[in-house]
């Protein structure tokens, strides 16, 4: 922090998002078991716990107990992310008053396969960390057990099942969202009871209304939703022009 405030240098001068990402199927022959391992130049403890617990909705007490010994120290992050979670949430009306906010329940980790896949992803992250390329950095994992989760401290007695149970507990305490909600107005034919819009993004049984954003995705994409949403918007623009027989001279606009 001092480096950035005084000299605009150091880890805080780098973008806080990932510098690189690996997308991997963690279980051979099993569809939708993909995870992303994101490498970020900053860690969850470098900011002294100022915005991080609030941004990621972490329990402040658990955060302080887990990261207390390394707060403010340099580090980087290997973040394991689900690419195709099987858990699905719900959005429902709070009341008949349109001014009331909707009730959003993401139901994270409600499908057991998601927990299993994330554990596999963590195990892969450890394998990457044990490569010569990362060992040469002199970095090591912050291996303090998360409060409330039992970890086998005897390295000579490495019980894989017990290890997996610890990481399941870790995930349930520390996992968060990457803010890429999608699929609440999914595209599909009118015969699909879950579909909201048709292939031209028109809301079924409603005239003059289209939905053009990540909510129309019938399934999540393998990564961030921003680029895919721009593509959906570009397609929607073409469809609307075609419906209204509009021919736009882009050179004239530019």
TrEMBL record:
<dbReference type="Pfam" id="PF05199">
    <property type="entry name" value="GMC_oxred_C"/>
</dbReference>
<dbReference type="InterPro" id="IPR036188">
    <property type="entry name" value="FAD/NAD-bd_sf"/>
</dbReference>
<protein>
    <submittedName>
        <fullName>Glucose dehydrogenase [FAD, quinone]</fullName>
    </submittedName>
</protein>
<feature type="domain" description="Glucose-methanol-choline oxidoreductase C-terminal">
    <location>
        <begin position="85"/>
        <end position="233"/>
    </location>
</feature>
<dbReference type="GO" id="GO:0050660">
    <property type="term" value="F:flavin adenine dinucleotide binding"/>
</dbReference>
<dbReference type="GO" id="GO:0016614">
    <property type="term" value="F:oxidoreductase activity, acting on CH-OH group of donors"/>
</dbReference>
<dbReference type="InterPro" id="IPR007867">
    <property type="entry name" value="GMC_OxRtase_C"/>
</dbReference>
<comment type="similarity">
    <text>Belongs to the GMC oxidoreductase family.</text>
</comment>
<dbReference type="InterPro" id="IPR012132">
    <property type="entry name" value="GMC_OxRdtase"/>
</dbReference>
